[in-house]
Write a structure and sequence with these properties.
Helices cover 50% and strands 14% of the residues. The chain has 17 helices and 8 strands. The protein binds hypoxanthine (HPA) and zinc ion.
Length: 324
């Protein structure tokens, strides 16, 4: 089964590029940019990755992002992810980036975007991985700040397929960003949103009804509401599930408790993704392996997960046919 998982062509649809910053690269960039880290070694960094909830992770994750300064840094970060993804036979990747994490530190929006997109182009050319970029708004910041970020993105409309919503979920419902998402859709962006990771099923409903999300990121708490499950199944709204993330952030205690298999059996369009692989102990292949073993998935269920990832991708039918 491990061999099947590795060789299976797959699309990754929920990956925060800042969350692919491995401790080794963190040290390299800190050295290059003359930035002091609050850690003495790679082991020291890894020992700090003991999370109790989403916020305890975000605090460390935003701090680490400070080592990313130049276009080359963003290139190196993205290129490292793509090379690793190629080993898991990722054929297509839809990557989140958080411009506000960087612009708040005085880094230009264009520095971030150019570094990432030039690596994505190299990934297509040299690794055969096609990609799309999704710009996330930090939901702990104001809707006004999100609108400013949307305006910064408009000259680069062709390089960004969708907008999304991430960061601290509870207390920051999708409704807070309704006008920003209305404007984004008017400008031609697709929309997605993190919802139902730590937040209640109601946030998933808001993401669908108010933000017109084409996919829900995480969405695991939908299982608490039978009507919502029926709707997600009937409309085949894709859910980009991140099993190792959910365990590391204590959404579920053990992988054996994860609802992914029940979600598949309920007819939901579930995909498997790594979220922030440098922090959560595994890339997409390791996420597939963990649920396959922990939930005793059948070969057919594993194949279904990979098929779903292509069905849910923001590419046209012709490209989907080439990818599979
Ligand atoms: N949830 C919310 N925000 C995030 C996540 C996540 O899983 N990863 C990076 N930012
Ligand atoms: Zn995420």
């Amino acid at each position: 089964m491990d061999d099947l998982i590795r060789r299976l062509p797959k699309a990754e649809l929920h990956l925060h590029i800042e969350g692919s910053l491995e401790p080794e690269l963190m040290f390299e960039l800190a050295g290059r940019n003359g930035i002091a880290l609050p850690y003495n070694s790679v082991d020291d960094v890894k020992a700090a990755y003991q999370f109790t909830n989403l916020q305890s992770f975000l605090d460390i994750y935003y701090q680490a992002a400070a080592v990313l300064q130049t276009e080359q840094d963003f290139f190196d970060l993205t290129w490292a992810y793509l090379k690793r993804a190629a080993e898991d036979n990722v054929r297509h990747a839809e990557i989140f980036f958080d411009p506000q994490t960087h612009t708040a530190r005085g880094i230009d929006f264009e520095t971030v975007l150019e570094g990432i997109t030039s690596a994505l182009q190299a990934g297509e050319r040299e690794l055969g991985i096609s990609s799309r970029l999704i710009m996330c708004f930090l939901r702990h910041l104001s809707a006004k700040e999100a609108m400013t970020t949307l305006q910064q993105a408009l000259p680069h409309r062709q390089q960004i397929v969708a907008v999304g919503l991430d960061s601290s979920e509870v207390g920051h419902p999708p409704s807070k960003f309704r006008e920003v998402f209305d404007e984004a859709r008017r400008q031609g962006f697709l929309t997605v949103a993190h919802a139902g990771e730590e937040g209640p099923p109601e946030y998933i409903r808001e993401a669908l009804d108010l933000l017109h999300a084409a996919r829900i990121d995480h969405g695991v708490r939908c299982m608490e509401n039978a009507d919502l499950v029926s709707r997600l199944r009937d409309e085949q709204i894709p859910l980009t599930v991140c099993p190792l993330s959910n365990v590391r952030l204590c959404v579920f205690e053990r992988i054996e408790d994860h609802p992914l298999r029940r979600m598949l059996e309920a007819g939901l369009c579930v995909t498997v993704n790594s979220d922030d692989p440098a922090y959560f102990g595994g890339y997409i292949g390791e996420n597939f392996a963990a649920v396959t073993r922990g939930l005793e998935l059948s070969r057919e269920q594993v194949l279904q997960l990979a098929r779903n990832s292509f069905a849910a991708a923001f590419v046209d039918e012709k490209r989907k046919a080439e990818l599979i």
